[in-house]
Fold this protein.
Amino acid sequence: MKYSITGSNLQIANVEIGSGEELVTNAGAMVYTSGNVQMESKMEGGFMSGLKRSFSGSSMFLVKFRTTSGSGTVGIAGRAPGKIIDLNIGDGSWICQKSSFLGSENTVNIDIAFQKKLGSMVFGGEGLILQKLSGNGLAFAHACGDLVQMDLKAGEMVKVSTSHVVAWQEGVKYDISSSGGVKNALFSGEGLFVTTLTGPGRVILQSMTLGDLAMSLYPYMPSSS
């Protein structure tokens, strides 16, 4: 499956699907298709699988795209300013923040993953339920802001501000740690805890969360007063 990602902070993944290939996306992700592309909405895996996807921020019904003849193109995008990242699921499973899944080949499995520690669930910023992408093939994830990728060696750790983790390979250890005392918690703007990611594996971080974007725009929203 060929593709290109175009744009800067309002990106589109332009995915070329050939005869016999199939692109699966979240509901509402499609921006455009070529004229020979056919679309079908389906509750993949049945009701329980659809329900689990909805808990992880994805849609119960997935949308499948295939061509009626030859090759065709489908453009998909996120719903907020940000970046699209391509993930090779064949290199190993990925754990992603809620609602980040955009689309994939039909050989990729979309499931839910749970935080294993209460502290990470409450203070890590990612919540109890995450998305897990497994199987084989190409997947696309979307997140607000700009993205940075890091390849962590075994035992190498990076500390991340709460909620700024987009995705990490399943072998990466996800936890929380203290931000360094009460003074740091009160005046650094980072709170009591930061997220820690320990290798080996690749992690993807974002410069701005959707919540931060919403808060920055809130003072400028019109009001009835």
User: Anything to note?
Assistant: The chain has four helices and 19 strands.
